[in-house]
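Re: weekly structure request thread

Next one in the queue (163 aa):
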Amino acid sequence: MITIIAAVANNNALGKNNQLIWHLPADLIRFKKTTLNHYIIMGRKTFESLGKPLPNRTTVIVTRNNEYKADGCIVVHSLKEALEVSKKDENVFILGGAKIYEQAINFADVLDITLIHHNFEADVYFPKIDASIWKESTRQNLKADDKNKYDYSFVTYTRKTSL
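Done, posted below.
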């Protein structure tokens, strides 16, 4: 199974200047729990925004730069190659960025989205979720609190049709 995991604002904003725009601890906790002990695939810019491999996960970085190296990571040069090196994991997670999401949304099985109920100014956006392809299968709505500044929802979408 291939799962895209992302935190996305109401206006599909993902980030600005290679950084997340918001701080939502509940999302970070859920992200860690969900991706632990799995392969995680991301583009080079996303990896560099994190600064290091995430513990207890196998980090696969997609880059066009043939000279790129990152300690503790697998570096590949296409999303297809990333999926090939990750195939022994029964649930691979795609972490972005925007260009990787745009490619992966065409064949992913599941979208695991934290929807932040706010609009943000951004320079990268998540692709539109097409209701003719994706069905909302679960939703947990949560209110802002002293740690999480915005109302948010954990939403899972499953692909309606097989490819």
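The beta strands are 2-9, 13-15, 39-43, 58-62, 73-76, 92-96, 110-116, 124-125, 134-142, 152-159. The first helix runs from residue 25 to 35.
Next request, please.
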